[in-house]
Design a protein that fits this description.
The complex is a heterodimer. Chain A is built from 13 helices and ten strands. Chain A is an alpha/beta fold. The mean pLDDT of chain B is 87. Classes of the chains: A alpha/beta, B mainly alpha.
Chain lengths: 292, 550
């Protein structure tokens, strides 16, 4: 019970702010219909950062990031190694809190509420923002228990058997595992394990799913399955995906953010525009493979 | 190219490796030094204890022919066929020996230390509320932690103390409902002790055995196997008297000594086709031993004049070397180990979890880190002084009781338990913690659901090895005034008791005499080392299981 209190505070705080993004929930359906034409104008911002700086000790990892990530879209973050892509992702659900010398300054808000405010409980935040990691990391438990993990710890109401089945179906894994739900999640192949992790994340019905290079450890066939899955998930969820693979970003994302060395967000816009006609010369060089 | 074969070409020359070779063999010598010295000592000790050379030549020849040659032949055959089969065969043989040792310990526990009825009452009084609490919690998922905790406290209180219990006694209320504990202890009708052993010891063995043998075959096979094991224990209890063994010890031997190797062999044969031939090894070893015993009896060959005899294991100390025995010391050591484990395990694991999962990385944590390592290096005699000071002088406990000894040895091994448990917790991949926190788990949920289950066998391994250190300690026991020699086996934690190393020390110092030095002391050492190895074997099994999971 105590775990939920800060979440409620969070929601009430949202109601009080005068931020226009408050009314998301009300206009959501209208927006989704109009969205296909011009993403930029139509989709509502769900994650917004202003002047976001992150330091590891004395070293700067992110340099005043301003970004507005739209709801129910796939937003890809690309850039060379060490440019702060994953750091940004881990700011959204405050996984950076687990790193001892990490310091965050500036604003990063989810539906208008700054997640770094003192009254935000990171545990409650993470219950609304799911995450899928680079290496598939299923628990050494049965397939069923893996998917039910979030349901158990969050005390989700309802029939867990049904919710597990639904999550596995949405993760396109049900047909492969329905006869062996009791066997260990570690017995699955790498691609299946990653889809299991996605099922685990969506079982608790989060608002945002963060993916940190989810396909980088997988073979091409497994990768394409994950990509199909991500496109389907975007119908109901906001997906933010970090990737090394520019083709992947071009294939699956609606919006693309390009981070370059030094933790700068150099350009952010519609994926087509970024890949076909970037404004920034450095972005063009990066995308055409002149460096990075 | 032609220059290569030219006679003027004298190769590439040679680089001297003399220094490297010398260094390499010095390193090898350093590696083996301790092992070789200790092996030589143990061979001497074993020779003194078992006196194998006093046996008839015929006895040796018989066992050579029935046991040694066939077993080695089978081992050589398995070695060529499949290494895995040889391993599981050797494992089964080891399990036979270790199970025999454990059945001796458990038998001793029920025959002389704890009355089976008391044991049964305690087990039921603890299991019943646990089951009740689990039932309540699983029926209502949404019970808050406070409510769950309160339910648990009430359930255990009622089960152990009754209503209104000691609280009511203080207030002057009469007892309304007796506790489960008293209910069983003072029930007009008590279960037979063999039945109690069958239920409380045979039950868990049967359950685990059923799971192991059944593998993926489902519930029916599992229940069948478990039922078979239980039936075997009951049959043993009934057959015991026909060979002069009481039903209760017979049930213990069947449940602890015989069932585990049989179940293991059956499981290997049923589940691992490749290792199936390995079962041949224990069969040949057991059959060879039996044949050897029968044949030497028939031919009248005398066995060795061993000092490790049934009498040595079951007698108390005596002034006469021939009658001197180890029984009270073995019992004392077993009870000491129970006390040490109960006291050191929760505290040590708790400290390890705190330091690894909760403590922020600051100066305080680093200070604690360093000093726990220092604590592990404090001489044991100083811990003895600590125990004497705290428990005997300050808290006024009687000197030399199991409780005081257990607490002192518990303090002694606490840093070792903490260090090894931290090692095990640290080896849990951070990926899994990330996964759990990423799902919105609290720290406690992550520790409970991910970290502890994953590191548990490693923690257990470290604790068992630390217990092995405690069982051999002599100095702290001397300091807290444990008696060197006790003639009766202790039956409670408040009683003064001797321990195996103390008894050996006493024999080698106080009761000077050739026979004691040369025969009784080696026999005692052999038993002590055997108990130690049996304990460590659990650690080894756990560690293997743990590693194969990764």
């Amino acid at each position: 019970m105590t775990d939920n209190t800060p979440l409620e505070q969070d929601e009430s705080a949202r109601g009080e702010t005068a931020d226009p993004t408050n009314d998301d929930m009300l206009v959501e359906t209208d927006v989704a219909g109009a969205a296909t034409e011009t993403d930029q104008a139509a989709a509502d911002t769900i994650i917004r950062s202003r002047d976001l700086d992150v330091f590891y000790g004395a070293e700067r990892a992110l340099d005043s990031i301003d970004i507005d990530i739209p709801e129910n879209r796939v937003t890809a973050i690309i850039g060379p190694s060490g440019c702060g892509k994953s750091t940004f992702l881990r700011c959204v659900n405050r996984m950076n809190d687990r790193i001892d010398n990490c310091r965050v300054e500036g604003e990063l808000s989810l539906r208008g509420k700054n997640v770094y405010d003192d009254d935000v409980d990171p545990v409650a935040l993470r219950r609304r923002v799911g995450m899928v990691f680079q290496e598939p990391n299923p628990f050494p438990k049965s397939i069923y228990d893996n998917v039910a993990y979030g349901l158990e710890i969050q005390d989700v109401e309802g029939d867990h058997d049904e919710l597990v089945e639904e999550a596995l179906k949405r993760a396109a894994l049900w047909d492969e595992v329905k006869d062996k739900l009791d066997s260990s999640g570690l017995d699955l192949s790498g691609g299946q394990q990653q889809r299991l992790c996605i099922a685990r994340a969506i079982a608790v019905d989060p608002e945002v799913i963060l993916m940190d290079e989810p396909a980088s450890a997988l073979d091409p066939v497994a990768t394409s399955k994950i990509e199909d899955l991500i496109e389907e998930l975007a119908e109901d969820y906001t997906v933010v995906i970090v990737t090394h693979n520019m083709q992947q970003a071009a294939r699956i994302s609606d919006k693309t953010a390009v981070f370059l060395t030094g933790g700068e967000l150099v350009e952010f816009g519609d994926t087509n525009q970024i890949f076909e006609n970037p404004d920034n010369q450095r972005v063009e060089d990066y995308i055409t493979g002149k460096f990075g | 190219m032609a220059t290569r074969t030219d006679s003027t070409f004298d190769g590439f020359g040679r680089v001297s490796r003399t220094a490297g070779t010398i260094f390499r063999y010095l390193l090898l010598a350093a590696t083996l030094f301790g092992l070789v010295v200790m092996t030589i000592l143990l061979v001497y000790v074993a020779n003194d204890a078992f006196q194998p050379l006093t046996a008839d030549t015929g006895w040796h020849a018989t066992f050579l022919a029935t046991l040694l040659v066939p077993t080695l032949a089978v081992a050589a055959y398995l070695y060529r066929e499949s290494a895995a089969a040889l391993r599981s065969g050797a494992y089964t043989v080891g399990l036979i020996v270790v199970s025999a040792l454990f059945s001796g310990g458990v038998g001793m526990l029920f025959v002389d230390i704890v009355a089976p009825v008391e044991w049964f009452a305690v087990v039921v009084a603890l299991v019943a509320p646990t089951a009740a609490v689990l039932a309540v919690v699983s029926r209502d998922h949404r019970l808050s932690f406070t409510a769950q905790f309160a339910t648990a406290v009430v359930a255990f209180y009622v089960s152990l103390f009754g209503v209104p219990g000691p609280l009511g006694t203080v207030a002057g209320l009469p007892a309304v409902v007796p506790s489960v504990l008293d209910g069983i202890l003072y029930a007009p009708y008590a279960l037979d002790s063999w039945l109690i052993v069958t239920l409380t010891v045979g039950g868990p063995v049967a359950f685990l055995g059923g799971r192991f043998v059944a593998g993926d075959r489902g519930e029916r096979v599992r229940n069948l196997v478990a039922g078979g094991v239980l039936a075997g224990v009951v049959v043993a209890a009934f057959l015991g008297p026909t060979v002069g063994v009481e039903p209760m010890p017979a049930a213990v031997v069947a449940a602890v000594g015989i069932a585990p190797p049989v179940v293991y062999a059956a499981g290997v044969a049923a589940n691992r086709e490749q290792e199936r031939p390995g079962v041949l090894l224990p069969v040949v070893a057991v059959a060879g031993t039996a044949a050897g015993v029968v044949l030497t009896d028939a031919f009248g060959f005398a066995g060795p004049n061993s000092w490790v005899t049934w009498a040595f294991l079951t007698n108390p100390h005596s002034r006469f070397a021939e009658q001197a025995g180890f029984y009270p010391a073995i019992g004392g050591s077993i009870l000491l180990m129970v006390a040490v484990a109960v006291l050191a395990f929760p505290v040590g694991v708790g400290a390890a979890v705190y330091l690894e999962e909760y403590a922020p990385n600051n100066r305080f944590k680093r200070l604690v880190d360093v000093n726990i390592s220092n604590l592990a290096g404090v001489p044991s005699v100083v811990y003895g002084l600590l125990g004497l000071g705290i428990f005997v002088t300050y808290l006024g406990q009687a000197p030399g009781t199991i409780l005081v000894g257990g607490a002192t040895l518990g303090l002694l091994i606490l840093p070792i338990v903490i260090i090894s448990a931290r090692e095990a917790i640290r080896s849990v991949p951070d990926d899994l913690r990330d996964a759990s926190y990423g799902m919105g788990a609290t720290r406690w949920q992550t520790v409970k659901n991910v970290v502890l289950p994953r590191s548990f066998s490693g923690i257990l391994t470290g604790t068992i090895l630390a217990l092995g250190r405690a069982i051999g300690e002599t100095a702290p026991l001397i300091m807290i005034g444990a008696p060197n020699v006790k003639f009766a086996i202790p039956t409670g934690f408040g009683e003064a008791a001797s321990a195996m190393p103390l008894q050996v020390y006493a024999w080698s110092s106080l009761y000077a005499g050739e026979e004691f030095y040369q025969k009784v002391v080696p026999a005692g050492v052999v038993v002590l080392v055997a108990v130690l190895l049996a304990m460590n074997s659990i650690a080894i099994v756990l560690r293997n299981k743990y590693q194969s999971q990764d």
